[in-house]
């Protein structure tokens, strides 16, 4: 079915359906595809082991040649550098001594420690909601919350660019999943009009993870209010970073009270792992009873929770970390703009460099970047649209001007020049 | 297989995936979006149609397709390959 000439046109979007009679084998053409040397070259960028902390200067054993290199890291989500913050690490160590390594149980039965209880209260207060439920991952949080809130016959309306965890949540719930055109209030309005009379929830993100643009929250709120439909806001890439007090995009737009459910993850700006969902008290109580990732999975390790409490404290006692990050965002952008690169609609610490439709160019540039000591991962179709393949920079507060200058020199040589931008 | 037969397959799958859609209303020169299909619906219609036609057109090739007729043209290249 797949001819050799076309191999490079195929992508992970093409093999999700398995028609192999052998249930324990992938589709035959998937194997032909992924073993082709040209495809294998692109897959080398996955699962490359880091040998040091995910800070701006790290050590990577690259799959390209097996060599361990010191790299400038523009890929980790460690936006505020909290994963290695001395106070956060100290809090984790102290809690390890007290509680040991694992929670040894699901939250309902024996996995809840005083740390979990305190942190949930702190997060609820921070997000200005009644209550909060913690999950062992962000993905589990989104899936579990949607699973508990919706059911068969209900409708989850998501922005076209929403994360997979929301899509999977709708599947788990058995709810109908419908999408509207990215950030397009008219499309949302038409979509909601089409589902009048049903129980409907609208899910959007504060900062969209592949583009770094912001939700048009004022417009979404207006449309949702006119239809009487509540909003679920995923603030994975905006919590601790946006708003006067770092509470996120809701605070940034002054619309926190219009958000029905506020989701966040602990794996990005917090520098750890886990997810949390804040909402009214009754809904949180209900979610705890019907969200499988909460009910039927081990709770977060108490030491991680203690560390995340410290992350919250450090990131909110003043604005210094996010101020440092924003200063870096502005400096980085100015440099990238002077290279005439296409940064899409980014208005955050997530900055794409959109290179166009050629997957081969993307991979060649990514190899060159890595050989020059820049850890900047390529993002290929279907994660992003086929005409807008890209690199994606995660700006960290920990980057120095020198790191950024050095990174931009490499970006100029391996991306901007080949693209004819400079 | 003719283009008309391919359009028939696509149209049938569109009808199965979109509520309250009338077959006589479907014009191949229109986009599925004109009939209320969102991007997830379109992925489903395309997947079901390709499976039925026993073809696998790379998804990356479908980005520029604007309407049902163009989709059928693309499918036709692979049906007769
Ligand atoms: C928008 C969004 N929501 C949810 C998640 C899931 O979070 P986690 O990686 O912490 O499980 C991510 C990140 O992967 C994300 O980008």
Word description of this protein:
- The complex is a heterodimer of chains A (422) and B (81).
- Chain A has 422 residues and is of the alpha/beta class.
- Helices cover 41% and strands 15% of the residues of chain A.
- Chain A has helices at residues 28-35, 37-43, 86-99, 107-111, 114-126, 138-149, 164-173, 185-194, 217-227, 249-252, 281-290, 292-295, 302-317, 320-338, 359-371, 401-416; strands spanning 57-61, 68-73, 131-135, 155-159, 176-180, 200-205, 231-234, 261-265, 275-279, 350-356, 374-375, 378-379, 389-394.
- In chain A, strand 1 (57-61) and strand 2 form a beta hairpin.
- The relative contact order of chain A is 0.15.
- Chain B contains 3 helices and no strands.
- In chain B, helix 1 (3-17) crosses helix 3 (68-79).
- Pyridoxal-5'-phosphate binds at residues 137-139, 142, 163, 165, 205, 209, 234, 236-237, 265, 267, 275 of chain A.
Secondary-structure map with pairings?
The complex is a heterodimer of chains A (422) and B (81).
Chain A: H1 28-35, H2 37-43, E1 57-61, E2 68-73, H3 86-99, H4 107-111, H5 114-126, E3 131-135, H6 138-149, E4 155-159, H7 164-173, E5 176-180, H8 185-194, E6 200-205, H9 217-227, E7 231-234, H10 249-252, E8 261-265, E9 275-279, H11 281-290, H12 292-295, H13 302-317, H14 320-338, E10 350-356, H15 359-371, E11 374-375, E12 378-379, E13 389-394, H16 401-416
Parallel strand pairs in A: 2-11, 4-5, 4-6, 6-7, 7-8
Antiparallel strand pairs in A: 1-2, 3-9, 8-9, 10-13, 12-13
Helix pairs in contact in A: 3-13, 5-13, 6-7, 6-11, 8-9, 14-16, 15-16
Chain B: H1 3-17, H2 39-53, H3 68-79
Bound molecules: pyridoxal-5'-phosphate.
The site of pyridoxal-5'-phosphate has 14 residues of chain A, from helix 6.
